[in-house]
Prior knowledge:
Blueprint: E1 7-10, E2 15-19, E3 30-40, E4 53-60, E5 68-71, E6 75-80
Antiparallel strand pairs: 1-3, 2-3, 2-6, 3-4, 4-5
Amino acid sequence: xxxHADFAIPVHQRIRVATDVDPDGNGxxxxxxxxxxxxxxxxxxxxxxxxxxxxxxxxxxxxRPRPYWIAQANLVSTTPLD
Length: 82
């Protein structure tokens, strides 16, 4: 699933994260967390198969051409950077 955030704020603390998702066929993402976001799907509130809201993380992997929004459930590790 391709995620997008309806609302987002920058993350000022330097945090490195790893995920279990492969959004572009180049392996799981590993990189710096640059933004915290969330989405709201008002139409999904009437559908029990879909979550009406969720937390997302914008991750900048230095081996990728662009950052990706990743769902909170797909984070496997977080490491504060100095």
